[in-house]
Amino acid sequence: MERSETQLTAATGSNGAVDSAADRPAWDSKIQYVLAQVGFSVGLGNVWRFPYLCHQNGGGAFMLLYIFLLLIVGVPLFFMELAAGQSIRQGSIGVWKHISPKLEGIGYSSCVVCFYVALYYNVIIAWSLFYLGNSFQYPLPWHHCPIDVTINDTGTLKECSSSSPTSYFWFRKALNITNSIEESGEFNPIMTGCLLAAWAIVSLAMIKGIKSSARVMYFSSVFPYVVLFIFLIRGLLLDGAMDGITYMFYPRLEIWGNVQVWRQAATQVFFALGLGYGSVIAYSSYNPVQNNCHRDALMVSCINFMTSVLASLVVFVVLGFRAKTTALHCVAENIRLLNLKMANESHQPWLPHFNMTDPSSVSIPAYREWYSQYRSFLGPTITDCNLEEEMNKGVEGTGLAFIAFTEVMALFPGSPFWSSLFFLMLLNLGLSTMFGTMQGILTPLMDNFSLLGRHRTLLTVSSCALGFLIGLLFTQRSGNYFVTMFDDYSATLPLVIVVIFETISVAWVYGTDRFLDDIEIMLKWRPPVVYKYLWKYVCLLAMVGLLAASLLRMIFKRPTYTAWNQQTASETTLEYPGWALAMIISLIVFASLPVPIGYIRSVLKSRSMRATPSPEGPGREMHRELYTHCNSTDQLESNSHHAPPQEDAGHHRIGFLPVGNEQYQLLPQQEDEEEEEQDTGV
């Protein structure tokens, strides 16, 4: 058992130097670590992706499905990453390389995907900065349509009057968007400046590693919860709030038979916890070895889910108010048309029983009951006003934050205050996730390359500068389409592939029994045996199923994106052109390639070392002639009877890689041979 503990509590970097626990940065307190993990896992997706999925996929039924998948897939995989990072005390590259050199490509794939996400995620932070800056004026600039100065009268711009003030401000003022991804357009100077500011904030917050970013976390992780509760209390006082909440929780159990709903729920679990990015591993690697990572996994997962529910309540309360306001406006407009119709027609069999002189006194149910009886007499100009249809007009992502919410906040008394509060919340949600994403890039590189580790500040600044330069792709007029492309395709498949190989490496290469043994050493108690079967079978099959479903969906349904047409002032769905499809495939392949490349490189290196032995000795390669077969029981007994002295534990770090159900145990050697092989590693 001591040998197993030694194996997991030290790891060798690429330069051959052991990263001792004493030299590694550490969290100042447990609350600092928890805030960092919660801040990373709770991001913009909890606010605008989870509520949309609930909205579209059965409300309460989707929540039950989400909880089920969270318990059997999300929590076990999250616990696995926390335990691996805490025990080996390395970033994602070092953790999987430590388990087997053939698996080091997993860590590099995680770094590539983290960089993809950081590129477009900081653009969203830049958008939030832009809207935050425009919130300090009254009335809000997206409250009314601007006047068309090209005509003599006081008419408004056609693009705005044909859509809405909030849509016009988002697509024309903020993005100045083109009609399709094929029209690149020039750079948007305002957004370029906001992106530079966003990268500067990230760089300054992370320039001293976790010591500086953790201090920012105290505010960026807590502040969004304060704002969400304020919005919930304010929203519950709005007309239509209860209609929205009822719509949210009403269960439609028939959706459980839809495979796509299962795919969407599994994907949301996967991304909500930040699995595969390497950030969870990086943060946990700064923990003391005895930290209770099992409790952390349960606590962070629970906080993440409850945050999603809280955000959904806020969203549905606001959408309920928006839907009822729209429906009442529809009733008022139809009554105005009815008054005109009544003045021009003598025969009026459709004459309503409600008071047409006061539209505000007419309820939506009363109007709909009258409309259903006399619609055949009314003609096409008089329409139905359906509250449920308005609720069904679900919006997600940027549409929810920058169109739907801005529309509602413009109706609040003191709208600049509410707008500033909302976009400050989005800014903090984005930054806390961005810190974790960047940590998933920087920590593995610094752990694995000693030169980078000695120049932490230069690496941080250089990474942020490179991110800004590549991020200019997203600040051209067609940049929003590239954000959508990266969000939909650059991370999904590569991350699923990464987590599949992570699970294989722990469950089948390293061995679940040995992994649980090592966790028992850390926690002083053994986790339930159910984790063994969840890791080996349930999680692995679920991830393979998710990968297959995502691939089939891409093959049978050509990738599309939503574009804004300036002439019609409406959104249209377009297919990606050929070069864009090639770009999508390249992003996926480039992020996935390190896994097979790392395996092939390790195999070739091993064969080369065996074919041409070094005159200085075998070095770091493992020589099979020094090992004999033994099972897990023999290994544990051997370790308990022949444990090395405590002071030499970090010196003799022998690993046991399982091959099928076999294990290998080091045979006794002569003293000089032991000294020669003292650096042998796995």
UniProtKB/TrEMBL annotation:
User: In terms of domain of life, where is this protein from?
Assistant: Eukaryota
This protein's GO cellular component annotations are: membrane
Which residue stretches does the UniProt record annotate as biased composition, category Acidic residues?
670-682
Give the start-end ranges of region Disordered: 1-21, 633-682
Pfam families for the chain:
SNF
Where is the chain membrane-spanning?
33-51, 63-84, 105-132, 190-210, 222-245, 265-286, 298-319, 417-436, 457-475, 495-512, 533-556, 576-600
Known InterPro entries for this protein?
Na/ntran_symport, SNS_sf
Q: Which GO terms describe its molecular function?
A: metal ion binding; symporter activity
Classify the main location: membrane
Which membrane topology term applies here?
Multi-pass membrane protein
Q: Which UniProt keywords apply?
A: Membrane, Metal-binding, Sodium, Symport, Transmembrane, Transmembrane helix, Transport
Q: Where does the record say this protein resides? A: Membrane
Amino acid composition bias (Polar residues), ranges on this chain: 1-17
Sites binding Na(+) sit at G39, V42, N46, N304, L429
Protein family per UniProt: Belongs to the sodium:neurotransmitter symporter (SNF) (TC 2.A.22) family.
Please give the NCBIfam families that the UniProt record associates with this protein: Na_transp
Q: What is this protein called?
A: Transporter
Q: Which organism is it from?
A: Oryzias latipes (Japanese rice fish)
